[in-house]
Design goal:
Blueprint (H helix, E strand, L loop, with lengths): L2 E5 L3 H13 L3 E5 L2 H10 L4 E4 L8 H9 L6 E5 L4 H9 L4 E4 L4 H19 L8 E3 L2 E4 L4 E4 L2 E3 L3 H12 L4 E2 L1 H9 L8 H14 L9 E4 L3 E4 L2
Parallel strand pairs: 1-2, 1-3, 3-4, 4-5
Antiparallel strand pairs: 6-7, 7-8, 8-9, 10-12, 11-12
Helix pairs in contact: 1-5, 2-3, 6-7, 6-8, 7-8
């Protein structure tokens, strides 16, 4: 799953961007503050950074310039500023592309995909589509698809991410607290019972007999383990 960084202080625009990108198989980290956004951009490796220009504490131009001193990560600037000088300034500081608000969310997704693919080809990082295959189960992490005995089954996004995390870490026992943190995030609202509910939903979709699961095993008093 491609990891994106979204630095945007408008909550409504950020929600639209995040929803469309996550619906298309991306994982999005949203930061609303310029300085915090720059810290995340430099600390972690992202497939692409979506960067607003007008931000609290540090503007997008300064962020772009600082990132380019250390990284070649694709940067897509998303802004309401339409003056040609601003566009040229952003591109001159190393941004790969510019998209104006209001924008078509589908166009945004298309541009994100195109820039990631171009960057991966240029840097030799392009990978063949991954698939996790265990018995009759096939999981495609990059496309959010799951197949059982060749037949596709539908999982909600969080259920898919939980299944994917367990399948990518087979034979390890994870308690509910750890799974909630890994899949929902430290700041997510909810409780650990959410994990149990999602595990049961996953079993209903992928197990021949959910009462006697083959793939996701309950380890009494410890948590869950994906058996491989």
């Amino acid at each position: 799953m491609k990891q994106l960084l979204l630095i945007e202080d408008d909550p409504k625009i950020a929600e639209i961007e995040r929803d469309y990108l996550e619906a298309n198989g991306f994982s999005v980290t949203h930061i609303a503050d310029g300085k915090d956004g720059l810290a995340h951009a430099l600390e972690k490796d992202y497939a692409l950074i979506l960067l607003d220009v007008m931000l609290p504490r540090l503007d997008g131009f300064s962020i772009c310039r600082a990132i380019r001193r250390e990284k070649e990560t694709p940067i897509l600037m998303v802004t309401a500023r339409q003056e040609e000088i601003d566009i040229l300034r952003g591109l001159g500081m190393g941004a790969n592309d510019y998209i104006m608000k209001p924008f078509n969310p589908n166009e945004l997704v298309a541009r994100v995909r195109a820039h990631i693919e171009r960057y991966e080809k240029l840097t030799g990082r392009a990978e063949a589509a991954r698939a996790i295959c265990i018995g009759a189960l096939k999981i495609e992490p990059d496309t959010y698809r799951v197949f059982v005995a060749g037949k596709e089954v539908r999982l909600a996004r969080r259920a898919f991410e939980l299944l994917c995390f367990l399948a990518e870490n087979p034979n390890h026992v994870f308690d509910r607290e750890t799974l909630f943190e890994k899949v929902w995030g430290c700041d997510a609202m909810g409780d650990n019972a959410t994990v149990m509910v999602h595990i049961n939903r996953i079993r209903e979709k992928i197990e021949k007999d959910p009462a006697h699961p083959v793939y996701i095993e309950t380890v009494r008093g410890a948590g869950y383990r994906f058996r491989k």
